[in-house]
Amino acid sequence: MGDYKFHNSIPSGRREFIKKSGIAIIGGSLVSPALSFGATNLYKDSTLKVGLIGCGGRGTGAAAQALQADPNVVLYAMGDVFEDRLNSAHTELLKVSGDKVKVDPKNKFVGFDAYQKVIDSGVDVVLLTTPPAFRPDHLQAAVDAGKHVFCEKPVAVDAPGVHKVLAAAKKAKEKGLSLVSGFCFRYDYPNRAIFGRVLDGQIGDIRTVTTFRHGGEAWYKERQPDWTDMTYRMRNWYYYNWLSGDFIVEQAVHSLDMMSWAMGDKMPISATGTGGRQVRTDKKYGNIFDHFAVEFEYENGAKGYHFTRQQSDTSHKNSVEVHGTDGSSITHIGRRYEITGKNSYTYRGERNNMFQTEHDELFASIRNGKPMNDGEWMAKSTMLAIWARMVGYTGQTLTWDQVFNSKESLGPKIDEYNWDLVWPSAPVAIPGKTKFV
What region holds the GFO/IDH/MocA-like oxidoreductase domain (predicted)? Predict the structure, then answer.
């Protein structure tokens, strides 16, 4: 479990930031290497066939963005555990993408093994947008088969899953495959401008990073008479930590990803905090919490703070503030992007669709034969969220070495899933009583 070593150095200058971010300078502008020119490879002029694995709302959106990213891309295969989700996604994609949707009935796959059938159907690129529990195995299968991958966040729900993702990412790099993550804020132009300056040292040495992800309730699907236990849980996967990782892993992970970005993707040494469920207490909400508050401590003494809740009728806040010795960066998502202090700056440039940019850069990298690989940092960011969950569940201060080498595996093995399986969800965690594994 401890075989993977992360590169734990904080970039000290713009040149290193550019290198780590995968960005080049052309005419004074920051440009992804995926958008550079001149490379040739076997995909340069061919039609790229896309396979969609996971046909929910996020998967449908990702497929539409993939089809818009390149003029010679088609949707070739689709897979989901639910036939109605697959059919509704297909109908919606026909409306928005028209004749780029070329999914023959024989390439529509339903069931827990649909992912492998999509991968084996002859596609070049796969979009992994199922519930997070399946991501490590689906990624591993896609890379083993030599496919380029868009991998939605988070990439795992437990530490063993993170290790599996790291192994797959390493193999993707060795095979020259592109692997792009769904951590969309790293593809957002305003955030790239702000975090680029932070990593360039323009606010000095970082002392604290504070992130908020406060919002309301999520969706819920009422149980139907003909549903098995597994059907019900799969329809409401968000509320079971063995499928979603808990909401701090499934959604608030974006904030923790930006914390990690600001710190140059250097992992903290320890974390402490709390969490619980005070509002979302009904049995229908499975075993996840509705709030967490966690402090991370870094080796250089810097601190990272994360606060998140999902509770109705409470105020919303989605922000990242980085405070350094020479100033601060302030990001209020969608509204405010600025730096105060010695090198004051306000972003007034282009606003892009970050979800689209993910796919634009993915497909450009495939065309140009210059693979992108988000594997290591997307695994780190996911592990931060898993770490925060562990701290909240147990009420204990936990170190990086402890959590990264945790043996806790939350769900069934990939080949154990079937509609008659009754998986015993853990009881709702109680800090001080729930044990670290």
Answer: 198-328
Ranges of the chain whose pLDDT falls below 70 = 1-42
Superfamily the domain 14-185+371-375 falls into: NAD(P)-binding Rossmann-like Domain (3.40.50.720)
Q: Which fold has domain 205-345+378-416?
A: Dihydrodipicolinate Reductase; domain 2 (3.30.360)
Please enumerate, as own/partner, the contacts of 111-116 that have beta carbons within 8 Å and a separation of 24 or more: 111/81, 112/81, 112/414, 112/417, 112/418, 114/53, 114/79, 114/80, 114/81, 115/53, 115/79, 115/141, 116/141
Locate the domains of the chain by residue range. Answer: 14-185+371-375, 205-345+378-416
Give residue 43's pLDDT. 74
- CB of 127 closer than 8 Å to CB of 211: no
Look at residue 40 in the predicted model and tell me its pLDDT: 40
- pLDDT tens-digit profile of 316-352? 999 999 999 999 999 999 899 999 999 999 999 999 9
Average pLDDT of the chain to the nearest whole number = 92
Q: Which residue has the tokens 């350094």?
A: 324
The pLDDT value recorded for residue 32 is: 42
The CA-to-CA distance between both ends of the chain, in Å, stands at 14
Whole-structure pTM value: 0.91
